[in-house]
Amino acid sequence: MCLFCKIVAGEIPSTKVYEDETILAFRDIAPMAPTHILVIPKTHIPSVDGITAENSAVVAHIFETIPAIAAQEGLTGGYRVVSNCGDDAGQTVHHLHFHILGGKKLNVEMA
């Protein structure tokens, strides 16, 4: 079972900011911005490459929910949404997740 599946199962604690029947959002333990939240599907999807017609509704739901999470966090000046796909892109947990980054003016340089 992957790290994020263990968080969903309650085996590893997290600081939840949002949860419903299909997704979970929690604070990153190594934040890269003043606000750094991870939003994950509760079902295991390994990465963006694992999105299919059968599971894409959960991804749509994540993107419908991200603005509400950002508003709840007071990210009125904007925020960034990032998903790393694969080892070369820096994906360290192979469970689909989206980073919400904000709380300051973010650097626009890309790696």
List keywords for this structure.
111 residues, alpha+beta, 5-stranded antiparallel beta sheet, 2 helices, 23% strand, globular
Q: What can you see in these coordinates?
A:
The N and C termini lie far apart (30 Å). Helix content is 21%, strand content 23%. It has a five-stranded antiparallel β-sheet with strand order 1-2-3-5-4, covered by helices on one side. It has 111 residues and is an alpha+beta fold. A hairpin with a 3-residue loop joins strand 1 and strand 2. It has two helices and five strands. The mean pLDDT is 95.
- N→C terminal distance: 30 Å
Number of strands: 5
Number of helices, where a helix is a run of at least 4 consecutive DSSP H or I residues: 2
What gross morphology would you assign?
Answer: globular
| Major β-sheet annotation | 5 strands, antiparallel
Across the major sheet, the strand order is 1-2-3-5-4
- Compressed to H and E, one letter per element, the order equals HEEEHEE
Task: Tell me the strand percentage band.
Answer: 15-25%
Average pLDDT score:
95
Low-pLDDT parts are none
Class by alpha and beta content? alpha+beta
The radius of gyration computed from the alpha-carbon positions, rounded to a whole number of angstroms, is 13 Å
Helical amount among residues, as a percent range?
A: 10-25%
Helix-strand blueprint:
Blueprint: H1 3-8, E1 16-19, E2 23-27, E3 35-41, H2 56-72, E4 79-82, E5 98-102
Antiparallel strand pairs: 1-2, 2-3, 3-5, 4-5
